[in-house]
């Protein structure tokens, strides 16, 4: 399950980066907002930044 989340997280990150490039090159805000949504979904699915730190 953890490996599956990592794959989907990276897929959403790649899609987000692609949409960001398309949105910035065509000056289309819909692609830019979609890119931000995909990147946030990628961060939530990755979950590394949400885990408590080991002390």
Task: Give structural notes.
The protein is an all-alpha fold and 55 residues long. 78% of the residues lie in helices and 0% in strands. It is built from two helices and no strands. The chain has helices spanning 2-26, 29-46. The radius of gyration is 13 Å and the shape is elongated.
The low-confidence parts are: none
Helices and strands, in order, run as HH
Which structural class matches the secondary elements?
mainly alpha
- How many strand segments? 0
Specify Rg, calculated over alpha carbons.
13 Å
Strand content: under 5%
Q: TL;DR of this structure?
A:
By secondary structure, the protein is mainly α. 78% of the residues lie in helices and 0% in strands.
Topology (SSEs and partners):
Layout lengths: L1 H25 L2 H18 L9
Helix pairs in contact: 1-2
Q: Top keywords for this entry?
A:
mainly alpha; 2 helices; about 0% strand; about 55 residues
């Amino acid at each position: 399950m953890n490996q599956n989340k990592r794959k989907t997280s990276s897929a959403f990150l790649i899609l987000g980066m692609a949409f960001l490039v398309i949105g910035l090159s065509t000056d289309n805000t819909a692609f830019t907002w979609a890119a931000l949504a995909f990147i946030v979904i990628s961060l939530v699915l990755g979950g590394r930044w949400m885990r408590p730190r080991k002390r």
